[in-house]
Amino acid sequence: MFLSISPAKNGGKTIKKMSKSYSNTKATLALAKASFRSIMRSPSAVVFTLAFPLIFILVFGFLGGGGVHVDVAVAPGSDLQNPVIKALENISVIRLVKDKDAAEIRTALEKGNYDAVIEVQRNKAGTPAYMANVTYTSASLDKGNILKSVLNNLLFTLNSKDVRPTVAQLNESTVKGRIYRTIDFILPGQLGFSLLSTGVFGTAFVFFSLRQNLVIKRFFATPVSRSSIVFGEGIARIGFALLGAIFIILIGHFFFKFTLIHGVITVLNMLLLALIGLIVFMGFGFVVSGVAKSESTIPPISNIITLPQFLLSGTFFSIDAFPSWLQPISRALPLTYLNDAMRKVAFEGAGLWDVKHQILILVIWGIGIYAVAVKVFKWE
Amino acid sequence: MNNTNAIISVKNLVKKYDDFTAVNGITFDVYENEIFGLLGPNGAGKTTTLEIIETLREKTSGEVLVDGFSVDREASKIKRIIGVQLQAAGYYPNLNLVELMELFSGLYGVNIRPMEMLEKVNLQDKAKAKYKALSGGQKQRFSIATTLINSPKIIFLDEPTTGLDPQARRNLWDLIIDIRNNGTTVVLTTHYMDEAEQLCDRVAFVERGEIIVLDTPDNLIDNLVSSGFERKKEVKKANLEDVFIHLTGKEWREDN
C-alpha cells in the first residue's frame, strides 16, 4: 500500500551506499542551506538585521543633511531691500524666516524654535544709512552667538567696504576636506548594531529552540557530527548577516552618499571586519543559549548584552561626548572597536592593518567569550 | 518468523541516574526482520533502553550490539544503518516537508528524491506544507519517512501511535507492516496491547527497568488461558473500535 520500492532493489541500494564514505562537508552544507532558508523566512531575523538599521539610517540620513542652522526671524515691518538682509540671505548657515507676525515670532523665540529676530530700518537721520536691531533668545544662546559673530563680520565688511585697512588685513582660506556627513558616522554604527543583534539574538534563539524541540536530538540520531551542526548554522548566519551588511552599505552609499573611499576595496575590508565582529557576537549567542532556562528568558539576557553596547559603543554619538567616568566602560565593549574600525576604514580609507589595534581587542573578546561558551553551551 | 538471527543483542543493560535506576539489567535479542515490541507503563525504562540502542544515551554498564557493531566503539557505524523516530521530536523550523527531506538526506549523506520518500508515507500532497501544520497522524508518518531515508536495516519507533485516532492508527499499522515486509527490522514501544497483538511478532514486557516476560503475543495469551484465566465478561465477536471503524470508515482521510 505504501512502499513502492521492492526489497531486492532496496537491499542493493543499501550495500552501495554503505561502501561510500560519509561526507561531513555535505552534511554541513545541507544544514547551512536549511538554516539559511529558515532565517530568510523568520520575520524577527529580517527585522533585526535589516529593517531596524535601515530605519535609523533613513531617519538620520534625512535629519542630518546640512549641519548647523540658525533660524532668524525678520520682524514685521522691517525694510527688506537693504544690504544687510541681502547679505544674510547669501549666508548658508542663516535661514531667514519672513512674513510672521510679532506674536508668532515671540512664542517661537521663547520655545527656541527661532534663534533670533532681526529688524532693519532705514535711518532717517542719515548716517549710518541703516539701523539693525537684533534680539536673541536665552532659549538658544549658542546659535545666538553664531549669529552675533556672523553679523559682526558682515557689518564690518559692509562698513569698511571702501576703507583701506590701517592696522592689519585678515586673509582667510579653507583647506578643502572631505565632507563628513551624519551618514558617515551613523551607518557604521548601525551596521555594527545589526551584526550584534543578529549574532546574539539569532544564535541564542536557534540553538535554544533546536535543543528544546529535540531537533538536535533527532540530528544526533544521524551520522552528523557536532562540529558540522555548529559550522552549518554558523555559515548560514554569517552568510545572512554579510548579505544584510552589503545591502545596508549599498543603500547608504547610493541614497545617502555614504563615503566609501576606495570603493569595492573598502566594502571588502568592511565585510571582513563584519565577519570578525559577527563571530565574536555569535559567541555571546552561544553563551545565552546555554544560560537561558526558557525561551522567554532569552530576550532579557540578550538585551543585557546588546543594549549597553547599543547605547555606549558610539552607535549614535561619539564616545568622546560621554562623561569621562563613562568612557572607560565604553572602551571596554567590543562593539566600540568594531564601530571605530568600520569608521576608520570607510571614511578615512584605512586598511585592515591600520585598525589592527581594534581587531586585536575584538579577537581577545572572541577568545574570552568562546572560552565561556565551551563551558556553558548545552546540547541537550 | 523462523529467522532467529539476532540483529540486536542486549546483555545485562543497566542505566543509572544519580539515585534512580531507569534500566536494571535488561537482556534480550531482536531478530532480523521481525517487529519487536517493548511494552510497559510510563517510566518503565522503554525509552531509555531504546535511546541507548540508538546511541543517543550513554549506558552505565552492560553490552549492546547492533548488527554486530558495539554502541561504545562504533556508534557512528550504527547511526548509518538505523532509522530513529523519537517521541515528540521536532523538525527544523520554517521548512516545508521537501526541504526537511533534503536536509536529512544531507545529514545521512545519501541521495534521495524527497517526493519519492513522501509518497511512501502518502504525504505527497503535503510536500509544500510545514511540519507544524500537519495533523498528528501526518506528523507521525512524516517522522517515519525520515527514518527511511538511509534505507536502514532497523528502524526504531517510540510510541508511534500515541494520540492518534483509530483510522490514523490503523493506517500507521499498515505502513509499519509494509516497511517490515520490505526487509527492515522494526523495534517499537507502545502502551496499546491491541496494537502489540496486531503488529508485533514478539513482545517484551518492561516493568521498573526489568523485562518480566518476553514471547510472542500468541504464546503469552495461551499461557495465561491455560493457567485457568477467564475474562469476567463474555467476549463478543467485535469491540467498540470495530463499531467505530465500521461506522466512520477505514479509508484515508485528508486530516489523518
Describe the structure.
The complex is a heterodimer of chains A (380) and B (256). With 380 residues, chain A is α/β, with parallel strands linked by helices. Chain A has 2 domains: 28-62 and 181-376, no CATH class; 70-158, D-Maltodextrin-Binding Protein, domain 2 (3-Layer(aba) Sandwich). Helix content of chain A is 62%, strand content 6%. Chain A contains 14 helices and 4 strands. Chain A has helices at residues 7-19, 24-40, 43-63, 83-89, 102-111, 141-159, 182-212, 215-220, 226-256, 264-291, 298-312, 327-330, 334-347, 356-376; strands at 70-74, 94-97, 116-122, 130-136. Chain A has a 4-stranded mixed beta sheet with strand order 2-1-3-4. Chain A starts with 6 loop residues before the first helix and ends with a helix. Chain B has 256 residues and is of the alpha/beta class. Chain B has one domain (6-248): 3-Layer(aba) Sandwich (Rossmann fold). Chain B is 34% helix and 25% strand. In chain B, the strands form 2 sheets. A 6-stranded mixed beta sheet of chain B has the order 6-7-8-3-9-10, with helices on both faces. The model of chain B has no long low-confidence stretch (mean pLDDT 90). Classes of the chains: A alpha/beta (380), B alpha/beta (256). At the A-B interface, helix 1, helix 2 and helix 8 of A face helix 2, helix 3, helix 4 and helix 6 of B.
What are the defining features of this structure?
heterodimer; A: 380 residues; 6% strand; disordered N terminus; B: 256 residues; alpha/beta; Rossmann fold; 6-stranded mixed beta sheet; 4-stranded antiparallel beta sheet; 34% helix; 25% strand
CATH superfamily of chain B: P-loop containing nucleotide triphosphate hydrolases
Q: Mean pLDDT of chain B, nearest integer?
A: 90
Kindly state the number of beta strands of chain A. 4
Q: Strand-and-helix sequence of chain B, N→C?
A: EEEHEEHEHHHEHEHEEHH
CATH topology of chain B: Rossmann fold
Query: What is the terminal-to-terminal distance of chain A?
Result: 38 Å
Classified by CATH, the class of chain B is Alpha Beta
Tally the helices of chain A: what do you get? 14
Q: Please give the oligomerization state of what you see.
A: heterodimer
CATH architecture of chain B: 3-Layer(aba) Sandwich
- Domains counted in the coordinates of chain B: how many? 1
**Residue fraction in strands of chain A:** 5-15%
- Mind describing the biggest β-sheet of chain A? 4 strands, mixed
Give the strand content of chain B.
Answer: 25-35%
* Widest β-sheet, arrangement of strands of chain B: 6-7-8-3-9-10
Count of DSSP helices of chain B? 9
Task: Measure the end-to-end span of chain B.
Answer: 31 Å
The helicity of chain B comes to: 25-40%
